Amino acid sequence: MIRDLTPSQPLPRSLSPLPDEILPGYLMRLAHRAGTTVDEIAHRTGLRGPRVRNPMLLSYLHTLDETRLQALAEATRLTPVEARSLLLGPLAARYGPLDPHYTRRATPMRVINNNPWVWTTTWRYCPQCLAGDPDDAIQQLHGGAWRRHWRLPPVFSCLTHRRLLRHLCPGCRTLVATAEMIDRTDEDDLHPIQCRRRGCGTQLADPQGHAEPDLDASTRRVLDRLQRRFARLLSPSALPTVRSTGWPIPAAQYFMDLRTVTALTLLSCPPPAPCARRHCSPRSSTSKLPGASTSTSGCCAAPRSTAPRRSCAPPSTPWPEPPYCTWPIASCAWTRHGLVPHSHP
Questions:
Q1: pLDDT category, 138, cuts 50, 70, 90?
Q2: Helices 217-234 and 251-268: crossing angle, nearest 10°?
Q3: Within a 10 A sphere around the Cβ of 66, how many other Cβ atoms?
């Protein structure tokens, strides 16, 4: 039995990480293969203590100290490089909002907390990617990868399946979000690609794909071009600099500039009107995309509080939260491209 193991012992069964897989998704797939709970796997890999209410810290999404990284690698029979590839920290060299140098935040906990440009508890996904490779027996049993790049707001589309990422559960029609790194970690009958909201459990994977917005050809070309550009900038094999307004800047700085332009764009939008769908409000920003139809004006945005503030202190997060829905963030990216054109050297 897995419960008889000490944290220093390797698990009886492990999994090889999938490309771009993030730590919470890997833990869920590993627990599903072992037939146990995520709590048990987290304890055996050194990511949480033996107490039931000893949660995994959100900072573990970004970085693990050497002791925990080594414990994770030994328990899962991974190399330290493979274990580190499950974290968001290695993306910091290309993505400024994850880099303490650009965010002026000294620790991984501060980089993750109150950072709206890294989604820690909101999960966007491609339903066809979650279905896994049909020729891979392991993926057909335990699902495909929850990807690291889906946690970054500029990643709004799956280039493999040429579809926008989803952020709502098709069953309960609410955000695919968790209160902690992973919810319902004490249950051993949940599949890694099920909605973890209590009372739901809908399968999020769909080999055929959920219904897509009605995109005309010109809009699809714009979205693909934008996403391919961001994918090149985020690639570790790409050149370290990009030319912006004629000047070479680090790729990480480009995404800091994108954050600024997106914040200005969102601040200039009128307050969202109420909508029938939870977490959804109509936005006009999609009109900036050529060929965007009026049927796509209803987009899910990050909730904006209208309650009066009780304190005169400045807010801890000066940047508006980027919308969860893929349409507004794609539109803001298009706006940034128009305001600050760039080319690759």
A1: very high
A2: 140
A3: 8
Residue 192 has a pLDDT of: 96
- 90-104, 118-132, 152-166, 205-219: least confidently modelled range: 205-219
CA–CA distance, 211 with 341 (Å, rounded to integer): 33
Q: How many CB atoms lie within 10 A of CB 15?
A: 18
The tokens for 108 are 């991984």
Name 341's Cβ contacts closer than 8 Å, sequence gap at least 6: 245
Q: Which residues contact 228 (CB under 8 A, 6 or more apart)?
A: 159
DSSP structure class, residue 69: H
Distances (CA, A) of 33 to 111, 146, 192, 257, 302: 32, 16, 10, 42, 34
The model's pLDDT over 28-40, given as tens digits with 9 standing for 90+, comes to 999 999 999 999 9
88-102, 273-287, 324-338, range with greatest mean pLDDT:
88-102
Q: Are 174 and 168 in contact (CB under 8 A)?
A: yes
Query: Which amino acid appears at position 168 of this protein?
Result: L
pTM of the model as a whole:
0.83
Which helix or strand (DSSP H or E) is residue 282 part of? Answer: strand 281-282
DSSP-assigned letters across all residues of 217-254: HHHHHHHHHHHHHHHHHH-TTS-SEEEETTEEEEHHHH
Which residue has 């929850």 as its token pair?
Answer: 146
